[in-house]
Amino acid sequence: MGRISLATAICLALGMSVTTQPGLAQDTGATAAPKSEKAAPPKSEKAAPPETEQAATPETEQAAPPPKRDCHLFGVTWDGGSRAAAQKRSQNSLKKVISDWRRKQGRRSGWLSNSVTIEPHRMRPNPYWRSKVSSNLYYRPNARTKTSYTVCWKGVISTAVCTSGAKVCK
């Protein structure tokens, strides 16, 4: 495959149209066939100028990117005499922390509006008697609610320890 046919194949694979000069055109075979619907076959010298193709691209570029969201992660760790108790304390404490934070931010900041979303987010466990939690200590399955994701494990002193996490966005 020569230089021109390789360049033609690359351009066609990227969806670009290709113009070749009559003296340099080569038989490129099946490799130069258009790879997508956007690709156009090679044009002759009498074809329309490339401005018509460039006019189509601003329409796709004019589509506004999604608005950038302002998000904050929250994680709370609690222990308990049972897994259910630790999970409930962790999730309730997470709700309270988020509520207090939103109230502290104030109405002007927009964090008290109805457009704020609270989504579950898996946080890394935050053990306070160990350096890390090994995989055999986790309770399965993890608890996922509409607004929190909770991971629990066997504690050193307590029966269970849980970390609940959430992502708050506006």
Task: Report a brief summary of the structure.
The protein is an alpha+beta fold. It has helices at 3-13, 51-61, 83-105, and strands at residues 71-80, 117-120, 143-144, 149-154, 160-169.
Strand content: 15-25%
Total beta strands: 5
- Amino- and carboxy-terminal Cα gap: 54 Å
Shape: elongated
The succession of helices and strands, N to C, reads HHEHEEEE
Structural class computed from helices and strand pairing: alpha+beta
List the helices and strands and how they pair.
Layout: H1 3-13, H2 51-61, E1 71-80, H3 83-105, E2 117-120, E3 143-144, E4 149-154, E5 160-169
Antiparallel strand pairs: 1-5, 2-5, 3-4, 4-5
3D architecture notes:
With 170 residues, this protein is of the alpha+beta class. It folds into two domains: 3-61, no CATH class; 71-169, no CATH class. The protein is built from three helices and five strands. It has helices at residues 3-13, 51-61, 83-105, and strands at 71-80, 117-120, 143-144, 149-154, 160-169. Strands 1, 2, 3, 4 and 5 form a five-stranded antiparallel sheet that branches. Residues 1-40 have low confidence and may be disordered.
Q: Keywords, please?
A:
single chain, 170 residues, alpha+beta, 2 domains, 5-stranded antiparallel sheet, 26% helix
